[in-house]
Amino acid sequence: ALKSVPAAPAPVAEEARAILKRLGVPDSVFAPSGRPALSPISGETVAHVRETTPEEAKAAIARADAAFKVWRRIPAPKRGEFVRLIGEELRAAKDDLGRLVTLEAGKVTSEGLGEVQEMIDICDFAVGLSRQLYGLTIATERADHRMMETWHPLGVCGVISAFNFPVAVWSWNAALAFVCGDSVVWKPSEKTLLTALATKAIVERAAKRFGGVPEGLLEVLLGGREIGEILVDDHRVPVVSATGSTAMGRQVGPKLAARFARAILELGGNNAAIVAPSADLDLALRGIAFAAMGTAGQRCTTLRRLFVHESVYDRLVPRLKKVYSSVTIGDPRREGVLVGPLIDKAAFDGMERALDEARAAGGVVHGGGRYTDGECANGFYARPALVEMPEQKGPVLRETFAPILYVMRYTDFEDVIAQHNAVGAGLSSSIFTLDMREAETFISAVGSDCGIANVNIGPSGAEIGGAFGGEKETGGGREAGSDAWKAYMRRATNTINYGRTLPLAQGVKFDV
Ligand code: UN1
């Protein structure tokens, strides 16, 4: 029976259109013949967005290339001032943009707002970075010489982003690219055009306040894969940062390699956690629940595989099952809802297929299936599934972008590390243990092979201060914090002779 719930929130399309207006998205971007922008909350069409034609895409890249040639001459701390203003505009727009993320991507309210906070955080980081694009001074082997490295702007930076972090992923790339002196051409997911348009309007406000931002510093290409391909194939784009599936990366990576462009790839994850005998089980339970069910299992960093030591399995897994069966699913705008809709039918069908395969492989499925209560009838809401597997095989070995957690028992620590690493992807990982030998081994050279390895927190929800990305089929790229900025610049090594002779390196003699 339905619990007594407050009146249904406002119709999705109306609310989204009001936000777009408030955020300053012009009517000219919409056209009846355009691509429908849907909300996964209700399946409603919010608007029809005019798509970018191939000719327009090429013209946009040309404008971005011209903008780069102006922008690279602006001192980096001044470029940082522009990003500071973007951060200010994002602060002012946080409620609206966060809500639009909820409406368009289906994230629950706090996660929609959290996504915008992530944008603000990376802007702050980039502002500081704009005064710290340091190169080294290096000891030379020659007398009266100096050797140093200089970091220069690189060019047009292509950004291809996915529906699940429709605006934060753009910001990790764009905030760095802008302070590094690059222009940006952004191809957002065709499933999240509205948040992209809103972001563009916010950046334009910052540009107006800054004054002197060259036209074309941020271009947005709206459309499907063909439009993305134009960006990937264009020789004026020396670096492309692409977030999405490993299948997408397999297309994009070789194309970029063929023209010697730089690729920053952030692809699939098949992230695991190990629960060791000494684990704090209360803490592990919360960590696992958020990492596995948060964002309805649609994060690259979502927890998908759980290895539980046999000595704690019967204490942890029944509690986990309880959490799974009682988690609140529903309209992500409602207070208390933790699991919103999947992005579309294809995502739901993929989940069902994986669960069938898991059953065929001997798995016992708890939960799963479509949730259609009340106002959820028109979206693709799924009950999160916890699947007890006899071993790691079948669908456990790949990423299904949905809330499925495969649970397995383990006995031996070395063996579980081997199993942990025995999948294609290498994005994020974690261990719950109070044993410092296990914890340190897990994050050591012989432990997790992932780009992110955590202790006593789940694999998802990384802060922007660290470099974000992973190894193997995750693509090897790093975005956001630490020294990820270096991928957006080119490095020149400079050797200066301030003497009167010409000593050659390696002791070579060449007297003419
Ligand atoms: C993604 O799913 O593409 O670590 C990125 C996290 C977020 C980013 C996820 N900060 O879960």
From TrEMBL:
<dbReference type="InterPro" id="IPR044638">
    <property type="entry name" value="ALDH7A1-like"/>
</dbReference>
<feature type="active site">
    <location>
        <position position="266"/>
    </location>
</feature>
<dbReference type="InterPro" id="IPR016161">
    <property type="entry name" value="Ald_DH/histidinol_DH"/>
</dbReference>
<dbReference type="Pfam" id="PF00171">
    <property type="entry name" value="Aldedh"/>
</dbReference>
<dbReference type="InterPro" id="IPR016162">
    <property type="entry name" value="Ald_DH_N"/>
</dbReference>
<keyword id="KW-0520">NAD</keyword>
<dbReference type="InterPro" id="IPR016163">
    <property type="entry name" value="Ald_DH_C"/>
</dbReference>
<dbReference type="InterPro" id="IPR015590">
    <property type="entry name" value="Aldehyde_DH_dom"/>
</dbReference>
<keyword id="KW-0560">Oxidoreductase</keyword>
<feature type="domain" description="Aldehyde dehydrogenase">
    <location>
        <begin position="37"/>
        <end position="491"/>
    </location>
</feature>
<comment type="similarity">
    <text>Belongs to the aldehyde dehydrogenase family.</text>
</comment>
<dbReference type="GO" id="GO:0004029">
    <property type="term" value="F:aldehyde dehydrogenase (NAD+) activity"/>
</dbReference>
<dbReference type="InterPro" id="IPR029510">
    <property type="entry name" value="Ald_DH_CS_GLU"/>
</dbReference>
<protein>
    <recommendedName>
        <fullName>aldehyde dehydrogenase (NAD(+))</fullName>
        <ecNumber>1.2.1.3</ecNumber>
    </recommendedName>
</protein>
<comment type="subunit">
    <text>Homotetramer.</text>
</comment>
